[in-house]
Design a protein that fits this description.
By secondary structure, this protein is of the alpha+beta class. Helix content is 19%, strand content 39%. It folds into 2 domains: 122 residues, Pnp Oxidase, Chain A; 114 residues, predicted glycosyltransferase like domains (Thrombin, subunit H, Beta Barrel). The longest helix is centred in the last third of the chain and has 22 residues. It starts with 5 loop residues before the first strand and ends with a helix. The relative contact order is 0.15. About 4% of the residues have low confidence.
């Protein structure tokens, strides 16, 4: 949809709780990609407003160069007009199987034949990906790297999978002494392509023995006391890779 006739019903308001901060997405590009993907799949959002009233609206598209989120008017037009007059609306839906939520103000009716309503694209959304044990197999190209140790003698390992709980690493058999189960590496640096390095503490939980035919040792590590900021960045990286895979698969 390239043009909208909007009439005003106030700027946006957002959810805030300690857990939500772990799943907060603030990148405009990522937010637009999520909402566009939800629109393509015909996602229905639950809109909550005015002391518990709810209605269900289908997410149709983004418009005006991703400035507005466009939703249909549904069947209950009277309730929708109450929604347009609401001071704040909480939207909830699913991106795939993952709960997504955001809040908005400045609701606008779309006049003319199209009908429906629109809200400004949110500056942040919460995508509650709670599968802490879910591991993303990293792409063959542009894989993250991990520098084990931060002093002289530190070695580099390839990150073959990653979650917010830990990483799977591959390193040459000559450096297999790093893969002793129970060993803690207090200062390691994970570098995600295109981003600054993430300082983490690792504990080796298991290792493959002996080395594989290519002379590589595989080991699994858990993060120890992962800072919330690093947790969130890893979560966002996993989400970006999931979006890229969904687009590739069509």
């Amino acid at each position: 949809m390239n043009s909208l006739n909007l009439s005003s019903a106030g700027s946006r308001d957002y959810l805030a709780d300690d857990e939500a901060n772990r799943f907060l997405i603030q990148s405009r590009g990522e937010i637009a990609a999520i909402l566009r993907d939800m629109a393509r799949s015909g996602t229905v959002l639950t809109a909550s407003f005015q002391s518990g009233k709810t209605t269900h609206q289908r997410l149709l598209s983004l418009a005006h160069v991703d400035e507005w989120v466009v939703l249909d008017s549904g069947h209950d037009t009277q309730l929708v007009w109450h929604l347009i007059g609401a001071s704040a609306i909480r939207f909830e839906g699913k991106h795939g199987t993952v709960p997504v939520e955001f809040t908005a103000r400045d609701v606008r009716a779309i006049t003319g034949a199209a009908g429906g309503f629109a809200v400004p694209i949110p500056e942040q959304i919460v995508r509650r990906q709670k599968r802490d044990g879910y591991r993303l197999v990293t792409p063959l190209h542009d894989r993250p790297r991990c520098l084990l140790g931060s002093t002289v003698g530190a070695i580099e390992a390839r990150v073959v999978d990653i979650s917010v709980g830990g990483v799977g690493l591959v390193l040459p058999a000559a450096n297999a002494h790093w893969a002793r189960v129970g060993r803690r590496v207090a200062r390691s640096m994970i570098t995600i392509p295109g981003e600054e390095g993430l300082m983490v503490q690792l504990e080796v939980c298991h290792r493959q023995s002996p080395a594989d035919p290519d002379g590589l040792v595989h080991m699994g590590c858990r993060f120890v006391n992962l800072p919330p900021r690093v947790y969130a960045r890893i979560q966002r990286y996993i989400h970006r890779m999931e979006l890229r895979e969904r687009r590739y698969m069509g």
